[in-house]
């Protein structure tokens, strides 16, 4: 049974697909890539040849109706996630969709409903959550070693401001730093605390040079128990990718908190009662782990690690952050526990 593999099709030749997810699928245990589609068939054929993929389609429609395909990965621009995820689900395919799952919580709810109606699996591609270090970090928090959490500070910034034609700079396409990388600190805070924020306050730089998308955003999320989560995300700033968890008795520091390649160290540091130690973490391909977790659910019926319900909750927070940034107000949310 463990020799079974999930057959994948990839919708589009986006950089994240070619640079990370397709290699991750090819290196994984339970997956194989059988087809790739692009609206430019020449690009599809070129990418298919690059990775040794059997089929290349000149339309997404052709791929989702290929009976040999079990699941599709969607790395399309954000505004196309809802449409093609629902179409793929209705065609009988399981779907792994790039983050953010949708542009709004309402769209995410539509996608979740389509998955439920089809009986297929829908997952959001937050690869970092499948890295073993986050289970290790959660265990340390649960052990009480750093005491009750008082504060989390997360950063994810880089400078791509000069990239002409970058889809991240198209407002109608779901561009902006909150959608693109702010979603990482937000989902990490929810994962580590196991709770939902009660309010969001965000200040953002909306750049006329970049179609008025938020090129930088800094936020405060208020969690139950007076726990504060501070985050900043940006596409027009020096590169940073760090997360710190501050407790009463100590702290946890996570360098390269979200981006950790298979050859890159993913160790983190724990300081408890004045003593700092480095925690060694295996070097793994977190994209392969993400895909294998997905395949285990489809092939062997293992529980889905992160359900569409979790994605809906994350989108509610992003909705609140965007509203706060645009209206310059504090936005209250209704705290809700995360379902298993």
From TrEMBL:
Gene Ontology MF terms in the entry: nucleotide binding; oxidoreductase activity
Record SUPFAM superfamilies: Glyceraldehyde-3-phosphate dehydrogenase-like, C-terminal domain (SSF55347), NAD(P)-binding Rossmann-fold domains (SSF51735)
Signal peptide: none
Domain GFO/IDH/MocA-like oxidoreductase per the UniProt entry, residue ranges: 136-252
Domain Gfo/Idh/MocA-like oxidoreductase N-terminal: residue ranges: 7-124
Superkingdom classification of source: Bacteria
InterPro entries assigned: Gfo/Idh/MocA-like_OxRdtase_N (IPR000683), Gfo/Idh/MocA_domain (IPR050984), GFO_IDH_MocA-like_dom (IPR055170), NAD(P)-bd_dom_sf (IPR036291)
One Pfam assignment: GFO_IDH_MocA
Keywords: Oxidoreductase
Cited PANTHER family: OXIDOREDUCTASES, TRANS-1,2-DIHYDROBENZENE-1,2-DIOL DEHYDROGENASE
Family as reported in the entry's similarity comment: Belongs to the Gfo/Idh/MocA family.
Protein name: Oxidoreductase
Organism: Paenibacillus herberti
